[in-house]
Amino acid sequence: xxxxxxxxxxFTTLTIWITVQGAxxxxxxxxxxxxxxxxxxxxxxxxxxxxxxxxxAKFADVTATTGDGFSWNPCVDFTEKAxxxxxxxxxxxxxxxxxxxxxxxxxxxxxxxxxxxDKKNLEVTYTSKPDPTLPRIAIVELVCDESQEGTLTATGxxxxxxxxxxxxxxxxxxxxxxxxxxxxxxxxxxGSIVLIVFLVLVIVYVIVGVSVNxxxxxxxxxxxxxxxxxxxxxxxxxxxxxLFIFSICRRKGSxxxxx
Length: 259
Prior knowledge:
The chain is built from 3 helices and 12 strands; from the N terminus they run H-E-E-E-E-E-E-E-E-E-E-E-E-H-H. It is an alpha+beta fold. The strands form 3 sheets. The protein has a 5-stranded mixed beta sheet, with no helix packed on it. Strands 4-5-6-7 form a 4-stranded antiparallel beta sheet, with no helix packed on it. The protein has a 3-stranded antiparallel beta sheet with strand order 1-2-3, with no helix packed on it. The longest helix has 27 residues, at 190-216. It is elongated and about 95 Å long. The protein starts with a helix and ends in a 9-residue tail after the last helix. This is Autophagy-related protein 27.
């Protein structure tokens, strides 16, 4: 009985761990539109509640550690200032020097790309190419925090002449969640498609198997179930396999006997 308890505990622990991992972690987030993406475990990151639709930036003139200012608006392009490079953009760099202020576009909404960075966090990037040899890229890291509505911090350029400008959004909208019914992100994932195909194959297997056994082989009762002997023996085989594996693991220093 002790062995059965150990097996049950380990199985339950693994099940909980797999469930939690599937709910909170992902390795890819496929772009749905410029402010939302669908993770590979069927969850959604949607920044649309943070959008400013007035033509201005939701996060405006955020000062970076380098001294430059940065503006960013998810989902909808904005204009920082007329007659500058920052017209109809997703992000803008405001470079202040002396009496002169310069504005640099950091990409529009169409250039938005979602990807996982080296810290395993999701980020959205925007690319502007006023000069083909010197693209300017805005990188907004998305940090999940259910207690925050939305706070943007800016680091500035990641390195001399790198053309990459770093920002970080801390928000509850940066968290991956189950898509709302009717959302544009409620599409089928690869896992869902595989599951549907599997279920269809199971149904076809049962229907065809029962039909063949009943009408071609004239079987009756439980014998109409396809491969009845195999399926009734399977639980016992699985149990024996599990018990065998755990009995070996519990024997410290055990060795297989030589043939």
